[in-house]
Design goal:
- This protein is an alpha+beta fold.
- The chain has a single domain, classed as HIT family, subunit A.
- The protein contains 13 helices and 13 strands.
- Strand 8 and strand 9 form a beta hairpin.
């Protein structure tokens, strides 16, 4: 298989450079050599942002017209079958180059960025979006890409390519959750374990399960437990609806699970003035609402954000069931 790799000389870094350093240099190289990436990263300077404040959190609303491709992506089986997979190496634009990671993943610049430094990390093989056997991969990536937050959108929760497995990563310091939830976690520890703690937070507009610790094997094991418990709340037995954020700092992983019950809110399908074209995924759950239409950026209110989260996050009843299941693990 031919992979469009950028060699070490093109990265202008030594062999001892970290993966984060290589990834950031990749972004610089691609922005300077690939017109599409250059245009869209320059466009981030003109993106409009405003904050909507709540009691214990802030939602940053971003008007980013280039994200219409993701927000309005058709992810039904027929549409996917009829289009070429845009994450397969053979279908990448000729200008797009990447870095091979662990002989399995291709680290690429996302040409339609949300973050000032935004990566897409697909498997080199065409495989379904399914996290169950890749949890440790996510943790290792987060440790190696320690300047970034690594995230996963489930196949029914914002992944615009549910037919091709991929992670994404965005530079740290962009999503409000990175700072806000640390303080809330102190109040919501439900399962203290040696080398690992599990938190449940439901007073944060959306429901969040957080796994924190230093032991990679234990963190991966508890990630599997969380997903396994969510399977029991999922009647169709497909992968539970969820988004995941993962970061690594000072020898410790922090993994946020956002369990879901719905992909898109009713506002997405409304007509006329009632419509708000928003399709929440990991970054939205991280506290940055992406609006690809300026009219939605202008009109979205705190009550709309609360309502959207209420629709797409796990129900109160299932949240209580999950908590009972978790406590039986003590």
């Amino acid at each position: 298989m031919h992979l469009p790799l950028l060699d070490q000389k093109e990265l202008k870094l030594s062999e001892s450079a970290t993966l984060s350093q290589k990834a950031r240099m990749l972004i610089q190289q691609q922005v300077s050599s690939w017109d599409l990436a250059k245009t869209n990263y320059e466009g981030l300077k003109r993106v409009k942002v405003r904050n909507v404040e709540f009691d214990n959190c802030s939602i940053r609303v971003q008007f980013n017209p280039e994200r219409i491709r993701s927000s309005a992506a058709k992810v039904d089986a027929k549409s996917i079958q009829e289009r070429a997979c845009f994450l397969c190496a053979r279908n990448l634009p000729k200008e797009q180059k990447g870095i091979l990671y662990d002989d399995q993943y291709l680290i690429l610049v996302n040409p339609f960025p949300i973050f000032n430094e935004h990566l897409t990390i697909p498997d080199i093989l065409h495989a379904d979006q399914d996290i169950s056997c890749r949890l440790k991969d996510m943790l290792l990536l987060a440790r190696e890409l320690d300047d970034f937050v690594v995230f996963y959108n489930g196949p029914r929760c914002g992944a615009s390519a549910p037919d091709h497995f991929h992670f994404q990563a965005g530079i740290k310091g962009f999503m409000p959750i990175e700072e806000e939830l640390v303080n809330l976690e102190e109040k919501d520890l439900v399962l203290p374990k040696e080398g690992c703690g599990i938190y449940m937070t439901d007073n944060y507009l959306r429901k969040v399960i957080t796994v924190v610790g230093e032991d990679i094997e234990m963190i991966a094991a508890w990630m599997r437990e969380v997903i396994g418990m969510l399977y029991f709340l999922n009647e169709d037995r497909m992968e539970p609806m969820m988004n995941i954020l993962c970061s690594y700092d000072n020898g410790e992983w922090r993994v946020h699970f956002f369990p879901r019950r719905q992909h898109r809110p009713k506002q997405y399908f409304d007509q006329g003035e009632k419509q708000i074209l928003i399709s929440p995924a990991s970054v939205d759950f991280g506290g940055v609402f992406i609006t690809p239409r300026e009219e939605d950026f202008v009109k979205i209110k705190a009550s709309d954000i609360e309502d959207i989260f209420e629709q797409v996050t796990l129900s109160d009843e299932d949240w209580k069931r999950f908590r009972v299941s978790l406590l039986t693990c003590l």
